[in-house]
Amino acid sequence: xxxxxxxxxxxxxxxxxxxxxxxxxxxxxxxxxxxxxxxxxxxxxxxxxxxxxxxxxxxxxxxxxxxxxxxxxxxxxxxxxxxxxxxxxxxxxxxxxxxxxxxxxxxxxxxxxxxxxxxxxxxxxxxxxxxxxxxxxxxxxxxxxxxxxxxxxxxxxxxxxxxxxxxxxxxxxxxxxxxxxxxxxxxxxxxxxxxxxxxxxxxxxxxxxxxxxxxxxxxxxxxxxxxxxxxxxxxxxxxxxxxxxxxxxxxxxxxxxxxxxxxxxxxxxxxxxxxxxxxxxxxxxxxxxxxxxxxxxxxxxxxxxxxxxxxxxxxxxxxxxxxxxxxxxxxxxxx
Length: 335
Known about the structure:
Elements: H1 3-20, E1 52-54, E2 57-59, E3 63-65, H2 73-89, E4 92-94, H3 99-103, E5 119-124, H4 133-143, E6 147-151, H5 154-159, H6 171-180, E7 185-188, H7 196-202, E8 209-211, H8 220-227, H9 234-241, H10 247-258, E9 262-265, H11 272-280, E10 285-288, H12 290-321, H13 327-332
Parallel strand pairs: 3-4, 3-10, 4-5, 5-6, 6-7, 7-8, 8-9, 9-10
Antiparallel strand pairs: 1-2
Helix pairs in contact: 7-10, 11-12
C-alpha cells in the first residue's frame, strides 16, 4: 500500500470521527417514547440479574460498545481505553472496520491493545470478496477478536466519495463465507436498520446473531453527504435518511426471524432508559457508540468512564423499577 493511500485512509477515518460529533448527522434518537415500562413503586425486586449472552459469550451486563474507528493513529489510544473498560466491566466491544488493517497490517496497532473475551472485529460486506477469508480470519485473530461483524452499508457506499456504487451481495455468496469462516459471524446495518424480508433472509444463514443499527443514531448517509464532492440536494438527502427501519420494528423483526439467536439493538441509543426499553422489546444486548466517543472527546478517558458507569448504574435502577428480576422477566414485561 502506498504512503499516499495510507494518508488518505487515516484522514478519512479521522474526518468520520470529527463529523460524528456534528448535530447535523445525528438522527432523532431511538424513537421509543411510545414504549412505557411498568413501574413498581414498592421496588420489591431488591436486585436484578443483568447477565446476558452474545452468541456463546456471557456478559455481566447486556451492553456492547458499538463499532467506531480504527486505521488512524488517533484511534489507538481510544480503542485501548475501550478495551480496558469493556474487560473490567465484562461487556462487549466491536472494533471499527478492519479494512485499513487488511490493506496495511502496520495499522493493526490502531485497533488498540488489551485482552477481552467479548471483542469483535468488523468488516464491510464488499471486502469479503476482495480479501481471502484466511487473511480476514488471521487479521481478526491478531486483533484479539473472538467473532466477526459483517456490516451492510449500501446507502453509505452510494453516497461516499470512495464508495462502491455497484454494491450488492447474493445471499448464497454470503452463506458460503459464513459457513467457511472459523469464527462466529454477526450481521449489522450502519444506520438504516435490519427488518422485514431482509431479516428473514439473513436468518437462513448460520449466523450467531444480528445488530439492528436502525434509523435514529448517527446517519452515515448524512455524514458521507457532508464529505461528498458532488452534493446531493437537501430534499433527496432527507429522502435517503428516511429509508429503512426504526429501532422498535427492527428489534421485533429480528427477534421473530432469529429465534433464540442474539439480537443486538442499536440506532439512537443515548441513555439508560433507551437501553432498558430496547431489552424489554426483545433485544439480548444493546449497543451504544457515538455518545461514548462524545464523552471521550469532551472529557477524556475518565469522563468516558464516568459516563458509562453512570449509564449502566441508572439502567440497573430502571430495570429494577420494572419488577423484572432478570432479562427473561424484563422481555416479558411488555407482553
